[in-house]
């Protein structure tokens, strides 16, 4: 039995609505030889470029952690990538200096649109946010955000932009795509209530205090 397979994954509700306005048409539509994650520091017009192969050489980890969707379901899976803090350390960015800042994420985008989301830099570092490129030992699907997605497990999933392309350090806490489109909160904090726990095939109460670690 594959120990990386998430139990009852075939029963996970679809998340395609989350990305219906402008996903890449296929994996092949993204040229990974040209793709890079662009990191923009304050007052710098030229970004730092990090190629995909370079990202994977920093400090790769696989962690079993739970995500919660604003659509009232949750699932625990095996996420492979690097900690956001390790990326910033690798780039020589003094995170303490930028604690008052926010981190704005932008998707690669297509002719149909581009996604954005803004989160607290300090909060994401404290909560060990990850830049993820694989789940359960397999590369991200288009639905999950191929080739790269930032995941803060203490927030709802809509706060992590799929098909991540750019990270901007900013003092502005902008309203993101899904806050504007669906009226979701800018903070993205998980609300205390009962959720469908896909991997356990039952409903459980989540207290809304942050990342779910007790089951």
Automatic annotation (TrEMBL):
**Alphabetized PANTHER family for the sequence:** OXIDOREDUCTASE MOLYBDOPTERIN-BINDING DOMAIN-CONTAINING PROTEIN, PROTEIN-METHIONINE-SULFOXIDE REDUCTASE
Q: Matching Gene3D superfamilies, A to Z? A: Oxidoreductase, molybdopterin-binding domain
Q: Which organism is it from?
A: Vibrio mangrovi
Q: What Pfam families does the annotation carry?
A: Oxidored_molyb
What is the protein name stated in its UniProt record? Molybdopterin-dependent oxidoreductase
**Lineage of this protein's species?**
Bacteria, Pseudomonadati, Pseudomonadota, Gammaproteobacteria, Vibrionales
Ranges for domain Oxidoreductase molybdopterin-binding come to 30-178
Q: Which InterPro entries match?
A: OxRdtase_Mopterin-bd_dom (IPR000572), OxRdtase_Mopterin-bd_sf (IPR036374)
């Amino acid at each position: 039995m594959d120990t990386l397979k998430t139990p009852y994954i075939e029963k996970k509700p679809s998340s395609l609505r989350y990305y219906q306005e402008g996903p890449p048409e296929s994996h092949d539509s993204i040229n990974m030889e040209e793709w890079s994650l662009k990191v923009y520091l304050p007052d710098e017009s030229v970004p730092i470029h990090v190629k995909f192969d370079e990202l994977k050489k920093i400090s790769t980890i696989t962690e079993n952690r739970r995500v919660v969707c604003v659509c009232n379901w949750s699932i625990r899976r095996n996420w492979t990538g690097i900690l956001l803090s390790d990326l910033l350390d690798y780039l020589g960015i003094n995170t303490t200096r930028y604690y008052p800042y926010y981190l704005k994420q932008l998707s690669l985008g297509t002719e149909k649109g581009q996604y954005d989301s803004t989160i607290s830099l300090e909060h994401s570092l404290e909560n060990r946010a990850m830049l993820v490129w694989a789940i359960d030992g397999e590369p991200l699907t288009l639905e999950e955000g191929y080739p790269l997605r930032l995941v803060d497990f203490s927030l709802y999933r809509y706060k992590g932009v799929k098909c991540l392309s750019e990270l901007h350090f900013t003092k502005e806490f902008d309203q993101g795509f899904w806050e504007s489109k669906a009226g979701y909160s800018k903070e993205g904090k998980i609300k205390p209530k009962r959720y469908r726990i896909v991997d356990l095939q039952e409903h459980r109460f989540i207290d809304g205090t942050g990342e779910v670690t007790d089951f």
